[in-house]
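User: Is it possible to get a 3D structure for a protein together with its bound compound? The compound here is flavin-adenine dinucleotide. I've pasted both below.
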Amino acid sequence: MPDPKPTTTEAPPLPDGLLDRLRETLGPRGVVTDAEALAPYLSEWRNRYQGRSAAVLRPASTAETADAVRLCAESGVAITPQGGNTGLVGGAVAEGGVIVSTERLNRIRSVDADTFSMTVEAGCILADVQAAAAEAGRLFPLSLGAEGTCRIGGNLSTNAGGIHVLRYGNARDLVLGLEVVLPDGRVWDGLRALRKDNTGYALKHLFLGAEGTLGIITAAVLRLFPRPAARETALCALPDAAAAIRLFGRCMDAAGDVLNAFECSNRTGVHLAETLVEGVTVPLSTPSPFYALIEFAATGADDGGLRARFEAVLADAMEAGLVTDAVLAETEAQTAGLWRIREGITEAQIPAGLCAKHDVSVPISQIPTFLERAEAEVRAVDPDIRLVAYGHFGDGNIHFNAVRPETVTDEAFRPRIPPIQRAVHDVTMALNGSFSAEHGVGLMKRGDVARYRSAVEVDLMRAVKRAVDPKNLMNPGKVLPPE
Ligand code: FAD
Ligand code: MLT
Ligand code: ZN
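Assistant: Yes, that's possible. Here is the predicted structure of the complex:
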């Protein structure tokens, strides 16, 4: 659980001759060893881990990926798969061996508007996948703050969540078929566009969310949806988290068919975004203890009915005292401005300083209890911590970030992180929750797997890993706790 930045960045050397064989296979653009060019692959978004690797391999096709993996496997060299390197748990951080980047596997192979599916290579940037679907008049609904940088193979390997899960599901739910290079270099061709296929174990689900520990996803068939023609977005001020949960219930009841997002934040989250991130302005007259960003979206021609439905839900909620103030966007620019507040809360994490970060989920009804108990635990460690509680409340997913007090340095705060994380995860698990709702385990939460998942579950996971990757060469040290 601590953030182990190794003191040395020196990578263990590769076996003699391997780089020459890899260069013959992948060509000069396919192998990076220059220190300056390697650097971006070895650092990560929050600058918490430092990777070590002698080379980055950049295959341009599934066949090249398979050849490179086979050569590494024959030499006993470990591989860290990497997409956009936006993961938040250290899953793409190399601890030796080579990195296989999917950045040149970036073709949209086909978009089939009639059957609502598309086939893409793993290195496609998520925003490009969304754009290709939109060009064909369809929606690929996965959406998250890093969508301009993260790659679809990384999204599938982390089973990413984001802002539309309550309507369309997690990344796992958006996949029809997969193509995977296995740890020995064989290719599993499961690139089928079938909606029904009960022919034994659902192999694709092994690789989805496996964080690169079982193979490299090289391509996927994705599900598409009708594109909403109208959307309405509102920012609401609320008295507390309990009101947010009751408001969520009302939105589901009155408009569950069109509820597109239900994101929340406490005041500290919005305040930090407003003060630390450019372009964030809150268009409400007074600060509020809690906020909800709610979006309705409907397919079909808009006759104004969507706005009327939304206004009715908000008016009822105001009358019931659940909402104290609200602004409903009138223009696309205002909609973007409201979403900028949400993105700003995430972006503010970097300038705000070191934090004990949590990505937990609990049953939705337990969110207020979680917030109350977790805050008490955190304040017991440090009463001056700035608590940012925000995220995808419509999924029961809270990003609970305990940010260091302004008067404390990152270095002084660092030792307080493990006891805070332990206490917050204990509270989460006591409420039948999850210590990783959407970001995964990576390096950061291996200890939590050992602590909170049952012995039977850990045994089963180890058995799967041994069966698929008997030499432990595919992203070793991630997800599973050390034996
Ligand atoms: P990487 O970081 O490169 O890799 C992530 C993991 O997947 C690693 O374990 C890696 O080894 C493995 N991997 C990558 N590609 C492959 C492949 N082709 N085959 C096998 N394994 C592979 N996450 C959410 O779920 N919801 C959010 O709302 C969200 N918002 C974010 C906002 C910001 C600003 C940032 C920086 C991150 C956010 N994230 C969020 C986290 C991150 O963007 C996701 O985890 C994303 O899915 C990672 O994709 P990537 O391509 O960057 O993967
Ligand atoms: C988000 O929802 O903004 C994210 O998952 C990012 C984060 O928690 O840092
Ligand atoms: Zn999130």
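Residues 201 and 207 are 12 Å apart (CA to CA). The radius of gyration is 23 Å.
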